Amino acid sequence: MSAQMKYDFRSWRRAAAAVDTTASGAPQAIASTVAATTSAQACGAAGGLATVDGAVSIMLSVFAEIMNSQVVPGLQEGLDAESVALTETVTSLEATEEENASLAGEVW
User: Fold this and answer.
1) What pLDDT, on a 0 to 100 scale, did the predictor assign at position 4?
2) Nearest alpha carbon to residue 32 among 75, 56, 64
3) Which residues lie below 8 Å from residue 9, measured CB to CB, with a gap of 6+?
4) What is d(CA 84, CA 98) in angstroms, rounded to the nearest whole number?
5) Are residues 23 and 72 in contact, defined by beta-carbon separation less than 8 angstroms?
6) What is the pLDDT at residue 39?
7) What is the sign of the dihedral through the CA atoms of 102, 103, 106 and 108?
């Protein structure tokens, strides 16, 4: 390891906090986008041919259900896990750095 290498623990903690903030806000932001993009009326599928409109409406409602019940929760879990991992990693690195500094002080 290079003597020039240095970890910026504050930056690492800021990154963990940013991931945590994103994890908290992502579900609502995605749900809002899903709602806006899976509305049959918003997509122009209301008022046309009944068969086509019906098919598009079914497709959009299924897509919305899958996004809201499977994709969004999985995304939030992944972001939450990443935030926890970043926090645990920086905590471990700080402890290792302190221990290394202490050991180095004993050697000199």
Assistant:
1) 72
2) 64
3) 90, 93, 94, 97
4) 21
5) no
6) 81
7) negative
Copy the structure tokens of residue 38. Answer: 């899976």
Each of the 108 residues of the chain gets a pLDDT tens digit; together they read 556 777 789 998 999 999 999 888 988 999 999 988 888 777 666 665 667 677 878 888 899 999 999 999 999 899 999 999 999 999 999 999 899 889 888 886
Question: Residue 89 is encoded by which pair of tokens?
Answer: 């990693």
3-state secondary structure 21-89: HHHHHHHHHHHHHHHHHCCCCCCCCCCCCHHHHHHHHHHHHHHHHHHHHHHHHHHHHHHHHHHHHHHHH
DSSP state of 4: T
Sign of the CA dihedral 63, 64, 70, 73?
positive
